[in-house]
Amino acid sequence: MSGQLERCEREWHELEGEFQELQETHRIYKQKLEELAALQTLCSSSISKQKKHLKDLKLTLQRLESNGVNSAHCSLRLLGLSDSPASASQVAVITGVRHCAWPRVSFSQYFRRHSGCKRHTSQEEAELVQQMAANIKERQDVFFDMEAYLPKKNGLYLNLVLGNVNVTLLSNQAKFAYKDEYEKFKLYLTIILLLGAVACRFVLHYRVTDEVFNFLLVWYYCTLTIRESILISNGSRIKGWWVSHHYVSTFLSGVMLTWPNGPIYQKFRNQFLAFSIFQSCVQFLQYYYQRGCLYRLRALGERNHLDLTVEGFQSWMWRGLTFLLPFLFCGHFWQLYNAVTLFELSSHEECREWQVFVLALTFLILFLGNFLTTLKVVHAKLQKNRGKTKQP
Fold first, then answer.
1. Distance of alpha carbon 35 from alpha carbon 83, whole angstroms
2. Which of 33, 170, 180, 355 pairs as cysteine with 259 (C-beta 3.0–4.6 A)?
3. What is the DSSP-derived secondary structure letter of residue 80?
4. What is the distance between the alpha carbons of residues 210 and 189, in angstroms, rounded to a whole number?
């Protein structure tokens, strides 16, 4: 047997040994996956059960606040929690509120024992109800964080786009990496859209280049909505208008893409491209400054590691980013100007396209949503600051 063949045989035996170890490791891996799936199912069912009990308990507490805390004995019977010490301890476990009397007496005994001092008891009970309500709210936030690491059913939008695929990322590193990739995607596409709008406005006066630009807008906003839905499934707290805003923008870009060339289109073209240039510049400024602000707040423990930059203004931006407000309001009123222009064009005698009126309504919706949401945040923050200054 030649020396080269012997070396090949030795390598084969070494590979065979490593392969056996690999098979054993893979067997353990599959076993752990099955255990993980079982734990995920157990946690999900336990959270659902806890949330149901908390919902019932919250309704009971609301009845207590509306009917008076002295009717607590009657109201607690709605949950079946008024006659046993075990029930009392169950509420203590669910809410995190512990009372010295609960482990030893039932609710009925507790309220009978204190019926002789109603005024004093009513005050204590009112404070207890408020404390329990606050703990329930805190517990719901904890459940939200727990569910970010558990598989869940996709929403309607993700089901339509991806199907029933599990999009939950199991580690903080994977979640943060996906969030960081989302932020970079927004930055790069904002720069590309800025360059595209400048080129179409000043250099490329062709309908085909306008269609490419509008198609890029449609693809950009569609991709944003998908990625944001995945981030929301993984615990990101972006919500409200700033989520809906991208769906409306997707619709608007799609209508712009279908608008045929003609005299009415040419009357609005330059105004829309100028607006796109301004919007891209403002979004770039927002990304640049919001990212630094979020990094600082996360380091201080004041923000979640999955919080995202947005195209609007949120309460956490008050310190250090108020200089962006004039640019934001300018963009909002430019959207209103676009809506007014399109409404006027829709009544023009040469207008035959349905896209004109639909775009006018869409720009008006964007203006109202952006302006009112920003105004609400600013007003709430000013009221909060005014309340702090009045305190001694």
1. 39
2. 355
3. T
4. 16
Give per-residue pLDDT as tens, 270-301. 999 999 999 999 888 888 777 766 666 566 65
DSSP 8-state assignment for residue 261:
P
Q: Is residue 8 part of a domain?
A: no
Q: How many Å apart are CA 224 and CA 250, to the nearest integer?
A: 9
**Residue 164 tokens, joined:** 């029933």
Does residue 194 contact residue 277 with C-beta atoms inside 8 Å?
A: yes
Give me the pLDDT at residue 387, please.
63
**3-state percent helix, strand, coil for the chain, nearest multiple of 5:** 80, 0, 20
| Domain, as residue range, for 211 | 156-390
pLDDT in tens, 299-339: 665 555 666 666 655 554 555 567 778 888 899 999 999 99
Question: Which amino acid does the sequence have at 265?
Answer: Y
Q: What is the DSSP-derived secondary structure letter of residue 373?
A: H
The answer to whether 316 and 302 have CB atoms below 8 angstroms apart is yes
Angle in degrees, CA 373, 192, 183, rounded to 5: 55
Residues 246 and 197 in one domain: yes
Residues of the chain with pLDDT under 50: 69-86, 94-105, 107, 110-111, 114-119, 316, 392
What length does the chain have? 392
Distance CA 111, CA 82 (A): 10
Task: Report how far residue 169's alpha carbon sits from residue 171's, in angstroms, rounded to the nearest whole number.
Answer: 6
CA distance 321 to 318: 6
Residue 94: closest CA among 68, 121, 67, 55: 55
The amino acid at 282:
V
Q: Could you identify the residue written with the tokens 């098979």? A: 23
Domain boundary among 92, 122, 147: 147
> Which of 147, 164, 190 corresponds to the end of one domain?
147
Supply 196's token pair. 């595209």
